[in-house]
Amino acid sequence: MGKIFISYARADEEFVLKLAKDLRAAGVDLWLDQFDISPGMTWDEAVEAALEACPNFMIVLSENAVDSRSVNDEVSFALEENKDIIPVLYKQCKIPFRLRRIQRSDFTGDYDTALAALLQTPGVKKKTGQPTPAKSGEGLGSGKKIDGELERPALTDEMDSRTLDVKKKTIRPKPAPRVEKAKPAVVH
After folding, report:
1. How many domains does the chain have?
2. Is pLDDT larger for residue 153 or for residue 88?
3. What pLDDT does residue 146 have?
4. How far is CA 155 from CA 35, 48, 133, 163, 188, in A?
5. Residue-wise over 65-86: b if at least 16 C-beta within 10 A, else e?
6. Do the domain assignments include residue 56?
7. Ordered strands of the 30-31 beta sheet
8. Mean pLDDT for the stretch of residues 39-51
9. Are 87 and 59 in contact, with CB atoms under 8 Å apart?
10. Residue 3 CB partners (closer than 8 Å, separation 6+)
11. To the nearest 10°, the Cα dihedral for 65, 68, 72, 78?
């Protein structure tokens, strides 16, 4: 099983953060912008590197996601790169044409039942030796807001707040490009 990139509309972040915390608590290896992009990193470069590195792609579907240009770009990239697609239906919406043939995990009903089923999905199965959360919402962080921000999981010894290691690709802010002065032409 490889890492899962989670694509979603920012308007759905409360649900997505809960889902991501529950999946991580169950031992699922995932990449989520709010967990994995540190201050000072270039957002679009980090997203692109993660999209390239993650063999699995989870799309959280809602009208917000269907209307999001960023989400549609990420879906197109995942399909073009033959990623394993895992659609998660958060709210009823018109499913994009290219995703209609792929079986969805339906979270429009009971969350805990849908989470248990999702954890049995190929590509999502938890790593061995990891506990499954007993109730929804249990997992990394408290989900509480501190000064208007959701509490973030603590960094581990393997993580650095200034870098993102995605399959040995480390992204650091790029220095400004060097501009060389044109050399005068020599005429003989």
Report:
1. 1
2. 88
3. 37
4. 10, 22, 21, 12, 63
5. bbebeebbebbebbeeeebbbb
6. yes
7. 30-31, 4-7, 56-61, 84-89, 105-106
8. 93
9. yes
10. 29, 30, 31, 53, 54, 55, 56, 166, 167
11. -60
Quickly state the pLDDT bin for 124 (edges 50, 70, 90). confident
Residue 123: band (very low, low, confident or very high) from pLDDT cuts 50, 70, 90? confident
Per-chain mean pLDDT for the chain = 76
Provide the CATH number for the domain around residue 80. Answer: 3.40.50.10140
CA angle 6, 21, 88 (to 5 degrees): 40
* Inside any domain, residue 8: yes
Residue 151's φ and ψ, nearest 5 degrees, are -60, 135
Q: Which two tokens stand for residue 15?
A: 């649900």
Asked if 152 contacts 141 with a C-beta cutoff of 8 angstroms, the reply is yes
In Å, what is the CA distance from 20 to each residue of 42, 178, 180? 22, 40, 46
1-20 mean pLDDT = 94
Inter-residue contact 102 to 84 (CB < 8 Å): no
- With tokens 């709010």, the residue in question is 34
Residue with tokens 């339906």: 106
pTM of the full predicted structure?
0.67
Distance CA 30, CA 15 (A): 16
E strand or H helix that includes residue 5: strand 4-7
